[in-house]
Design goal:
The structure is a homodimer.
Chain A (H helix, E strand, L loop, with lengths): L3 H8 L6 H10 L1 E5 L4 E3 L7 E7 L1 E6 L7 E7 L3 E2 L2 H6 L6 E4 L3 E7 H10 L2 H26 L2 H11 L1 H6 L2 H8 L3 H11 L2
Antiparallel strand pairs in A: 1-8, 2-7, 3-6, 3-8, 4-5, 4-7
Helix pairs in contact in A: 2-4, 8-9
Chain lengths: 192, 192
């Protein structure tokens, strides 16, 4: 059943009545994407918040001087969007792409707002989600300051083995804020 | 009245009954700090979430190779803590210091948890606060990738003139992720 993962995800933090659950599920749209499909293009209005039902997505920024910097990954059971632009319904600062064939459940800003007013338990659910996202960014900034690149790479491999198997070394390097050349040197030392 | 700022801050996002408001205020502890006082030392258990009633705080990280990196500022009407360590009640990854004489209202983790269960409107309040904090970090990562240091400095000056007047150039430079020497060069060009 396509909704079993997202319901398990909700139940980690909140309990819902059957009616509330049905209302929530009625707001979701299902989307299948192939490997390399782009679900959000940088510059387009960011209309949806995505739940990764299966597969793996990444968010990346392309700039005049930056070729392509991967700034987020979202594996199965994670949520992803360009949060700033989703909340403002403005032009996305990043693109979001499927790293492998994936199935998604997406929610529009309008429907999320309805959800908050109809089922207040979602305030708690997204409070915890936003809190986790904020903490993840904060820890990342501090780890970039405090840990050598080798340690950050080893930690990333231990923490996200599923991601490491699917993405390119270039994508991991830009996520960790190091050059691909430096990552190759680290891998050579470690004989990975 | 010492509570007028924090009540205004709450009322931006939620409405409370008088009883709920009184319960919330009963959980707060008031603290006065002098310029340069450290309210949280890196390595100590992070016990409180702070509301800046007046003044200005900053959070900074000190490492073996990093002398001192300012990673956050919190001016009047802002909230600050080491969120990861506050939620885990673990050793702080940063120190928090008063940049100028400040008055604070602080909330413990235990009292925040009671607040969530007693007054569910606080789920909404902190959902919005966490969301803003996450978005701020996300935008900062993207601006660091996409905007030249000069532009980031000019934007910071326009956005936070109150902070610029109080803190050292070294603190601004580390917050923007540039060297103090480079910041001096930017300021010289702009004749600031």
């Amino acid at each position: 059943m396509v909704y079993s993962n997202i319901l398990k995800n909700l139940h980690k933090h909140i309990s819902l009545t059957q009616e509330e659950e049905e209302y929530f599920l009625s707001l979701l749209k299902y989307q299948e994407v192939s490997k390399k499909d782009v679900v959000l293009h940088q510059g387009e209005v960011c209309k949806h918040l995505y739940f990764v039902n299966s597969g793996l997505l990444r968010a990346f920024f392309t700039g005049q001087e930056t070729k392509e910097a991967t700034i987020m990954f979202a594996m199965e059971d994670w949520w992803i969007t360009d949060m700033h632009c989703f909340l403002q319904q403005s032009a996305a600062m990043v693109s979001i792409q499927a790293v492998e064939a994936s199935t998604l459940l997406k929610l529009s800003k309008h429907d999320l707002d309805s959800l908050y007013s109809t089922v207040p338990a979602f305030e708690r659910f997204f409070r915890i989600l936003m809190q986790n996202a904020y903490v993840r960014e904060q820890v990342r900034v501090l780890e970039n300051l405090s840990l050598p690149a080798e340690v950050r790479y080893t930690n990333f491999m231990k923490k996200y083995p599923q991601i490491v198997q699917q993405v390119t070394q270039k994508q991991i390097a830009s996520y960790l804020g190091i050059t691909p050349e430096f990552l190759s040197a680290i891998r050579a030392t470690k004989r990975l």
